[in-house]
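Dear Dr. L.,

I hope this message finds you well. Following up on our conversation about the binding site, I have prepared a predicted three-dimensional model of the protein together with pyridoxal-5'-phosphate. For your records, I am including the exact sequence and ligand specification that went into the calculation, followed by the structure tokens. Please feel free to forward this to your student if that is useful.
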Amino acid sequence: MTASDRSASPRPLPKPGILDIAAYVGGKSKVEGIAHPVKLSSNENVLGCSEQAKAAYRDAADRLHVYPDGKASGLRAAVSQRYGLEPERLTFGDGSDEIFALLCQAYLEPGDNIVQGEHGFAAYAIGARACQAEVRFAAEPNRRIDVAEVAKQVDARTRIVFVANPANPTGTWLTGEEIRDLHATLPPSVILVLDGAYAEFCTDPRFEDGLALARHAQNVVVTRTFSKIHGLASLRVGWGYADADIIEPIERIRPPFNTSIPAQEAAVAALADRAFEAASVALVEQWRPWLAQQLGGLGLAVTPSAANFVLVDFPATPGRTALEAEAFLASKGYLVRAVANYGLPNSLRITIGREEHNRAVVDLLAEFMNR
Ligand SMILES: Cc1ncc(COP(=O)(O)O)c(C=O)c1O
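The resulting structure of the complex is given below.
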């Protein structure tokens, strides 16, 4: 379609490529006939959020009529202090999703490309395609990002490489050394985005959050979110840290009031509640290996995960498939996530729940497999 085709159209047409984008599909939150299903479909924090964060949110209710601080100064100071980061090298987003979209807007023009893993998170591709850029998928042997496979996809039009570490929906992760190797293979003109949405759940000593790399490299962006470990998914706050020259163009195009007062203030309070954070990590560390072991005992393969969810493979046999298991769990009030749109048609992604949820999921899947 050319520009003149669009001008001659009897009704407004979006630019080429937009209607080829598959809209993001979130985890299911409803099932017919069940008033309060247990939602294990979006990797939210099953402990809720910090009581201090809730109190800060309520306190902000008296200021709903004023615009927020567009620089998120209080939150900026809190994040900078907590992680030892230069405040001027931070940017805040309406969730980290917005930061991916802003990076795409600032760095991609038609004909450019991004590279991500074959099972990579959907938001990156949506952001890139909205800028009429190509999305190149690197093979993920054993469902892990592979440095050589990423390097194979990078060409002269590559502007951004997106890596979630740990990854969603696989839960796999790269060591600090592998991330540094990956960075070393990229031309200096290519931005490496290290999406740390689940970073807190990876406690292996070989894991690095990438902040040290981003401090010294001119082409690394680390993103983090308040949606997972802090349980503030509904408030939509994420942040990015990078060289000032990467942050500056983002700040030019960022909607000026993209994080609200309640969100900024609840996030500051959440960051100070180390006990809530520790409890959230402890829950995942306790139940992730248990779930993997129990589901393994049912003959279901579980991909080793460093996040707050597990990816479980089902047989292709009719009666035992992933989609049938998803429907069976939903009929019993447990919502999990089918991930066929991530190239994993035989798998389900299950958020680690509280003890009673995890036990119920295992019991129900045992019933499903044996019926
Ligand atoms: C890998 C990954 N990155 C980013 C996000 C988005 O986080 P936010 O809520 O900050 O937009 C998610 C949410 O599920 C995710 O799985």
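In brief: The chain has two domains: 3-48+275-370, 51-272.

With kind regards,
A. P.
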